[in-house]
Every structure is written in structure tokens, then in C-alpha cells.
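Appendix B, Record 12. Input sequence as logged:
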Amino acid sequence: MLFYQLSRDPAEAVLPLIARKTLAEGRRLLVVSADAPQRDRISRALWSLGGETFLANGHAGEGQEDRQPILLSEVPRPANRATYLALADGVWREGEQPFARTFYLFDDATVQEARRVWRDLRGRQGIEQEYWKQEGGRWVKAG
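Logged structural output:
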């Protein structure tokens, strides 16, 4: 369980980095946000990394979800058989099945929810927690 505190960049700037590493590991990613405009911004960011680089993605409900290496959805249901989950809107959700890795992105508006989630998950068996924050333009593992 990786907690990412967004202080400088929004989720749509951070998720392409997470998605690129996920795909390099041969995994699929499910990105969840209840905010449809945010999902659209994330999709555009994934498609337009610049040059010949892009990260193919699709939206749940548009068909052929099982073919998408990165699927954007409002619910944590991995129709693309994703084993990695990114919660982009700062709202905690658990899927029906456990994911191999969960990226929980939160900002100042959702930091209290993130603290509650951190405490709630602390004693769960099989869950390791890491906290990352932005410092000077890069990600630093904290605490």
C-alpha cells in the first residue's frame, strides 16, 4: 500500500509515472476516481506524454475493457484484470478482491481521510505501508 501525498502536482501529472512503471513490470493498472472530469484529464495525460510515447488506456463502460492495459473507472472493479490499483481522487475504496499493489493519491483536501486510512490499515496482516511525498520536484519516502 503506497500513500502518495500530492503537494505540487495533481494526480494527472503523477499517474503517468506510476502507469509507466506498472506496465514495465508487465502489470495492468486500474485507475479509480468518482470525478469524471478528473478521469478524462488522466486519460489525456496518459495518451499525450509527448513524442512517440503514450500509455494506451480506456474508460470502463466503453467496451473492450479486458483489452485495456490501463482502465479508468469510478469503481474498483478490474474489468481489465488489473492487479494494481490507483485511487486518484483521495477517496479510499477496497475492491472485491485484494490488489497486489495499491497507490493511494491524496492532497491537502483529503489528507484527513488518508490519515484515517493509514491508521485503519496499520494492523492488517499482509499489508505493508509506505508514505511518499513531493520534495523539491522529486518523490521522497517519508517516515
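The chain has one domain: 2-142.
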